[in-house]
């Protein structure tokens, strides 16, 4: 079974490079179809959330390093456990507002 799988994979990728055609700079090949695809635009709320995410992410990384040097790994796990339990309880406070 493994030999059959190996043969099928080998046959799928055995196309020689000589048979491939490369586009030359003189060819007028469009890089993309302008009528299809994703829109490339950023609104102000996109930029706001990207910047907030960057600030929070940097704060978490620097905060973890600071806590780890001051209290060690036990203090880090204990702190995350306490804050995690507070956040877990807070989600039940805001649960009625979501429904």
Helix-strand pattern, N to C? Answer: HHH
> Separation of termini?
53 Å
Characterize the largest beta sheet: strand count, sense, and whether it forms a barrel. none
Q: Give the overall shape.
A: extended
Structural class: mainly alpha
- Portion of residues within helices: 55-70%
Mean residue pLDDT: 79
Q: Using only CA atoms, what is the Rg?
A: 27 Å
Beta percentage is under 5%
Q: Are there runs of 5+ residues with pLDDT below 50, and where?
A: none
Number of helical regions: 3
Instruction: Give the quaternary arrangement of the chains.
Output: single chain
Q: How many beta-strand segments?
A: 0
InterPro entries: AA-permease/SLC12A_dom, APC_YAT
Keywords: Membrane, Transmembrane, Transmembrane helix
Main location: membrane
GO molecular function: amino acid transmembrane transporter activity
Give a quick summary of the entry:
By secondary structure, this protein is mainly α. The protein has 3 helices and no strands. The longest helix is centred in the last third of the chain and has 50 residues.
What report would you give on this structure?
There is one protein chain. The protein has 99 residues and is an all-alpha fold. It has a domain at 47-99. The protein has 3 helices and no strands. It has helices spanning 2-12, 44-93, 95-98. The longest helix has 50 residues, at 44-93. The chain starts with a helix and ends with a helix. The model has no long low-confidence stretch (mean pLDDT 79).
Relevant terms:
99 residues, mainly alpha, extended, AA-permease/SLC12A_dom, transmembrane, Amino acid permease/ SLC12A domain-containing protein
């Amino acid at each position: 079974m493994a030999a059959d799988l190996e043969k099928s994979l080998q046959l799928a990728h055995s196309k020689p490079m000589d048979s491939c055609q490369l586009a030359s700079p003189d060819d007028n090949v469009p890089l993309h179809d302008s009528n299809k695809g994703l829109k490339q635009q950023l609104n102000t709320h996109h930029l706001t959330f990207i910047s907030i995410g960057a600030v929070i992410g940097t704060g978490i990384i620097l905060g973890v390093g600071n806590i780890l040097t001051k209290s060690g790994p036990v203090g880090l796990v204990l702190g995350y456990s306490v804050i995690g339990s507070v956040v877990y309880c807070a989600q039940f406070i805001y649960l009625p507002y979501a429904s």
